[in-house]
Amino acid sequence: MKVGIVGAGMVGSTAGYAIALSGAASTIVLVDLNAEMARAQAEDIAHAVPFSSARQVLSGGYVDLAGADVVIIAAGVGQRPGESRIELLSRNAQVFGNVIGSIQRHAPDALLLVASNPVDVMTEITTRLSGLPPARVIGTGTILDTARFRSLLGQHLGVSPLSVHAYVLGEHGDSEVLVWSSASAGAVPLASFAAQVNAPLTKNLRNRIDDDVRRAAYRIIAGKGSTYYGIGAGIARIIAAIRGDEQTVLSVSSVTREVEGVTDVALSLPRVVGIGGIGVTLLPDLDDDEHIALRRSAELLKTAQDSVVLPQKGS
């Protein structure tokens, strides 16, 4: 499978590294406005490949994306001092207009995987700009938040995170919703499992885990400037699910026809992912508070996405 990555900064290059080492793609092409950086990143990753698999890692222009099965979009602009979130979104929409047009000229059949923040709004913008069905535009969404949630629960319960089944829904951001009510470990409801292993889920523990998941990115950014290892691995996991047509359930973002009464909004729900993109979208059992929180998250995202004026085609 051929994978393109537009944006060879820390997220894009780390994703390329994770994909190369996992063997989830046979060819990886990095594209960036800074061609020298893309070339250097590709060469550096290529030097790691012989230790793990036989993969081709290249840099190039949009023309080199021809035949790509998936193109990851990790491009975008940073926030200027004093700039509002809406102004930043509008500038990123302009960038995406150029990027998506260039991708579709050379790789019209590719699935689009959006990794740029704010990822939910950028996923909705990408869907509108590309004209693709929502199933073929996937945002990384809360795949990393869900991994953080499962990791912390696993630590508390003394089991592998792979045995924990719990999801973070809604926005990849402050309004995200940790779903406790339908979480489980193995085939056992979470509260029952916790009682059996003498690791009670106290209110203080829930609050601490909620804060640790919700604030993780802030802590990492404060310590080293940005986050990239976790999301790089998450992107590689999505690519593996597509390549293997796994039909696996991942908490990714996509434009959703209706959730909690809010229509046509991009946010994360558990979704079945395979070679054609997103298949079935699922909604876990939620308690009353979780329903309210998910609706609030959807409303915030809907307001943000509707505030963005898309660039005119050809502008």
Task: Record the SSE blueprint.
Elements: E1 2-6, H1 10-22, E2 27-31, H2 35-48, E3 56-59, E4 70-73, H3 85-106, E5 111-114, H4 119-130, E6 137-139, H5 143-157, E7 164-165, E8 168-169, E9 177-178, E10 184-185, E11 188-189, H6 190-196, H7 203-214, H8 216-224, H9 229-243, E12 248-259, E13 262-274, E14 277-281, H10 288-306
Parallel strand pairs: 1-2, 1-4, 2-3, 4-5, 5-6
Antiparallel strand pairs: 7-10, 8-9, 10-11, 12-13, 13-14
Helix pairs in contact: 1-2, 1-9, 3-4, 4-10, 5-7
N to C succession of SSEs? EHEHEEHEHEHEEEEEHHHHEEEH
Secondary-structure class: alpha/beta
The strand count comes to 14
Count of helical regions: 10
* Average residue pLDDT: 93
Q: Describe the largest sheet.
A: 6 strands, parallel
From the N-terminal CA to the C-terminal CA, the straight-line distance is 33 Å
**Cα radius of gyration in angstroms:** 19 Å
> pLDDT below 50 for ≥5 consecutive residues: which ranges?
none
Q: Overview of this structure, please?
A:
With 315 residues, the chain is of the alpha/beta class. The chain is 44% helix and 21% strand. It contains 10 helices and 14 strands. It has helices at residues 10-22, 35-48, 85-106, 119-130, 143-157, 190-196, 203-214, 216-224, 229-243, 288-306, and strands spanning 2-6, 27-31, 56-59, 70-73, 111-114, 137-139, 164-165, 168-169, 177-178, 184-185, 188-189, 248-259, 262-274, 277-281. A 6-stranded parallel sheet has the order 3-2-1-4-5-6, with helices on both faces. A 3-stranded antiparallel sheet has the order 7-10-11. Strand 8 and strand 9 form a beta hairpin. The radius of gyration is 19 Å and the shape is globular. It starts with a strand and ends in a 9-residue tail after the last helix. The relative contact order is 0.14. The model has no long low-confidence stretch (mean pLDDT 93).
